[in-house]
């Protein structure tokens, strides 16, 4: 049986809807996956996340390696029991941290911010990217550590995740073609090492996703997607920097997905680190099955709520003083606690400007509720044959129906 059961397709795009089969249950697709970076969706209980409609969360291999350590988590029975989440978990490989420590975060890159400190003097600094793996200085205790492809897979095996991502280097868009090509080839060699390790030592039932790299270069992206699909991985993730603006990102994702059709149609496709509302809509149309991103929970912790307003990038920043005396609710019809209990924008603004944990928690719940409703609408639209109509309405500012 294929691990992805495609149950419906959209006739006007490449969108599909179905169920992803894992050891800890099914994931309804297309789906957004909240981040449980350090074995928790920050501020929420596992049952609350499930009640919002989420089938899977993502744990961060790199951070869990440094604290509390995979050995401790394994001694508790694995990540599911450790964090009290018995539904599917996907774990990243640590490869994104290679990018963020070596080149800067995506936000820093796009905004042109300089990194403070140099080399080994910077906490968490990457020291070397070599064929053996990555040497870095831990931000927890300052120790120099090596993270090799085999180490990444061993950590994810100890965590016991349902889906493990292979180790890769996530290159930014500002590096040249030569570096991107060499990095992508090394990522492919690391893929072979990950699969070899997993075939000998990996836990039964754990699925492995390869990661497509290649930067913004069409031939590199297509070749990488083909290499990953031919490798025998159960699924394919699309990673790396996807460009400097949205049109280029959609084009680059399209390059990869085109190579994953036909004979590789049944392999699930995951888009790493993408979670803006318009990007999710377009991603579904391109044929992506699952997405993950820190955006909705991070915005909530910093006082910003998601609302159906494309003119403000679907955001309302409650840290602004303009909301201080506004008695209107956050969003009519939203089933989250912030909205159903009648809290005003003025009260929520007071909470977040005062640094109250209640405000952060309420906005996190609201944002994940909004995202769950958005994805449910897109999923049902594919099944009902109404995706063009629904996608157009959501892009124009329609409120999710929370069916």
Question: How would you characterize this protein structure?
Answer:
By secondary structure, the chain is an alpha/beta fold. It folds into 2 domains: 4-292, Queuine tRNA-ribosyltransferase-like (TIM Barrel); 301-396, no CATH class. 42% of the residues lie in helices and 16% in strands. The protein has 16 helices and 16 strands. The strands form 4 sheets. An 8-stranded parallel beta sheet has the order 4-14-13-12-11-10-6-5. A 3-stranded antiparallel beta sheet has the order 1-2-3. The chain has a 3-stranded antiparallel beta sheet with strand order 7-8-9. The two termini are 30 Å apart. The model is unreliable at 103-122 (pLDDT under 50).
Brief description of this entry?
The chain has 403 residues and is an alpha/beta fold. Helices cover 42% and strands 16% of the residues. The longest helix has 28 residues, at 357-384.
Question: Can you tag this structure with a few keywords?
Answer:
globular, three-stranded antiparallel beta sheet, 16 helices, 403 residues, 16 strands, 2 domains, 42% helix, eight-stranded parallel beta sheet, alpha/beta
Topology summary:
Elements: E1 4-9, E2 16-22, E3 25-29, E4 31-33, H1 46-51, E5 57-59, H2 61-66, H3 70-75, H4 79-83, E6 89-91, H5 95-102, H6 106-111, E7 126-130, E8 133-137, E9 144-147, H7 149-159, E10 163-165, H8 177-201, E11 207-212, H9 218-230, E12 235-238, H10 246-259, E13 269-271, H11 277-286, E14 290-292, H12 295-301, E15 304-306, E16 315-317, H13 337-340, H14 345-353, H15 357-384, H16 387-396
Parallel strand pairs: 4-14, 5-6, 6-10, 10-11, 11-12, 12-13, 13-14
Antiparallel strand pairs: 1-2, 2-3, 7-8, 8-9, 15-16
